[in-house]
Prior knowledge:
Elements: H1 9-16, H2 20-28, H3 35-47, H4 54-61, E1 66-71, H5 77-87, H6 90-93, E2 96-101, H7 106-118, E3 123-126, H8 133-137, E4 143-146, E5 154-158, H9 160-173, E6 178-183, H10 193-206, E7 209-214, H11 221-236, E8 243-247, H12 250-264, E9 266-267, E10 271-277, H13 280-284, E11 290-293, H14 296-314, E12 327-330, E13 333-335, E14 346-347
Parallel strand pairs: 1-2, 1-3, 3-4, 4-5, 5-12, 6-7, 6-8, 8-10, 10-11
Antiparallel strand pairs: 9-14, 11-13
Helix pairs in contact: 1-2, 5-14, 9-10, 11-12
Amino acid sequence: MRRKKNVTFDDIAKHTGFSKTTISRYFNNPDSLTLENQDTIAKALRELNYKENKVARILANGKTEFVGIIIPNLSNHYYSEMLNQLLLTYEEFGYKFLVFVGNEDEEAERRYIQELLAYNIEGLIVLSQTLSSKELASLHLPIVSIERENQYICSVNTDNYMGGVQATSLLIRKKCDVLIHVNSPTASDFPAYGRIRGFLDICKEADINHKIIYKNFGNTYQSIKKDLTEVMEEIEGMEGKQKGIFISNDTHANIFLNLCIQKYGAFPEHYFLIGFDGSPISSEAVIPISTVGQQIQKIAWEAMRLLVSQMNEQKKRRPVPLAKPIHKVITPILIHRNTTEKGSPQRV
Length: 348
């Protein structure tokens, strides 16, 4: 079977009676044509069964329809699900993605960004916390961050403080004697610090015994398991019968749950466990884990919508830069599951 000849601008011009310049304007600056002429050309494309040559279009206008993503790692289920949801926005916005995993390596991330710029990306979504927002802003590129320091760039974040309040309040309602929050050391200008503030404020308000256990968790299962084993030993040495445990993400909450089951053969009835993020691992765990859902799908969609609005502005003849970064905040949703149910041990 012979390959069909590609339809050219010359073919479309002859079919419509317009000049090739007018046809080019339809693809590169459609607003410069009347709606009637746009409809005429669109009809001709359907009749001629036109298939767009993406490479030719990129060469013509320099717009690649590529967006870069820098993500910290894929071992944390929150990041892998966020990436999944970002990729799914292609159907809505039509942008393709080039993805790099940073692994907390500053120099590697700078190389990745230069690689992305070499591909002439139109915008960048950053989940990695390694490079400062000031450095990212110096790229003079549309950028949206998710759940990281964002003073100089646009962002979409969860209301982490409200999430911390929700998780802590639930554990208090379960009549726990002591509350424990497990987290990594977090700078106060990072959105996730709100989880710590929410926990502390509610504990002090309720005048309940509480403690924060900080660990510099790595990105491998073995290192996380080791740290959480130490956390479990510390918790078991605390006074108080009913222990409410708030862990900062569902990946770590699931590993902690598995450690409990391996040791006791069940999830202890005197433990109440809640995670944070609402990634699939929380519902797929051997015992479904209560969590603060971050509405990951909504965050991904809002991040792309915010980025697209900036990229569209850049395509205008006289783009108007943002006066200041836009910061969108998404409300979290408390999700009750088995690990905060009081009663007999949760067996598998």
